[in-house]
Amino acid sequence: MSVTGNALEVLRGRGFLEQISDEPALAQRLGAGPVVFYAGFDPTAASLHVGHYVPLLAMAHLARLGHRPIAVLGGGTAMVGDPSGKTEMRQLITREVIDANRIGIEGQVRRIIGPSAQVVNNGDWILPLNYIAFLRDIGRHFSVNRMLSAEAYRMRLEKGLSFIEFNYQLLQAYDFLALNERFDCALQIGGDDQWGNILAGIDLIRRVRQREAFGLTFPLLTTASGTKMGKTAAGAVWLDAALTSPYDFFQYFVNVDDRDVIRLLKMMTFEPLEEIQKLERAEGADLREAKRWLAHAVTAIVHGPQVADQMQAAARAAFGGGQFVGGAADAQGSAVALPTVNIDGARLLAGLKIVDLIAESGLASSKSAARRLIEQGGVRVGERRISSIDDVLAPEEIADSGTLLHAGKKHLRRLVRG
What we know:
418 residues; alpha/beta; Tyrosyl-Transfer RNA Synthetase; Structural Genomics Hypothetical 15.5 Kd Protein In mrcA-pckA Intergenic Region, Chain A; 3 domains; 5-stranded mixed β-sheet; 15% strand
């Protein structure tokens, strides 16, 4: 595949660039022909989340320009845990759980980056390492003083930094060296919290192989209000449909802050920049349409175009533009696309508290959060406003087609008899 376009300018125009190790040299290298590059993802959970989506999209953009992506799934580094951006040590997980997570995540990575993605497991070269040989061959190139000056380690010194975490930078640097030796990989990309680790890998390649390598980071994704992108009251927004339903995923992007819409269209979609820029001064109905465009585009990338169409139809039916029967959408089968809660008949007859239903359905992160929603007047079953934390769901409230449970103006579930 030939290289097309100026890769750095494409990434800069879409808001991806934060730091570059040697921009003139990297620009020249990227313009001369296909460059093998990588980003790493530690399988510490069963799915990637919206925070991982930015490096995946950056990889996809570079791949579309003709460069060669490698996604490293950290079957080895996940055994240690990255201290970057963490105030406490990660809970160590077993190798069996890590392997199961890695297999599940691989499909997400391939779907988003595209067919050119090469996926490797760093456990293949990290787990067989001889510790003493590794210290002699790799550890001798690292200065403890310089490592302690890195922000990832410095912020942890007061609360405590375990020795196993202290080794993480060596292992990530070794990843870059191993990929350079095996695949001629010359560029590592990642979030800006990885800058110190990336520089360590560049330095290690220079010391061991006397070769030039490069690093590039993206800004850490936060909302205009300063919160971490991809976090909701109910928890993280996952890329796995079993953990975050496609409807909730779609609605997350429909409901982003007005100030974030254009930035997210640039960073999280493949939509042409010239079309996005036309909306930079959008207000009112035009801005709402831009949010729907964003939600549809991102959902199509993560879950497929057909699912995105279904979620868009379901959202229009639930919040206007669709017909309702018994409080549930009945527009072209859109109700089926809504997150559905099956309620056991015996439990319903026994008196199911609304506060329990809200927490169990994922509309709130806990029962205490569910209570606050009710006390603030933000919960509705069909057309009935829930006024007390002791209110129960009446059996007759669930229509044959289902009934909508609203938590606030933007979040809902379809209740059906199990």
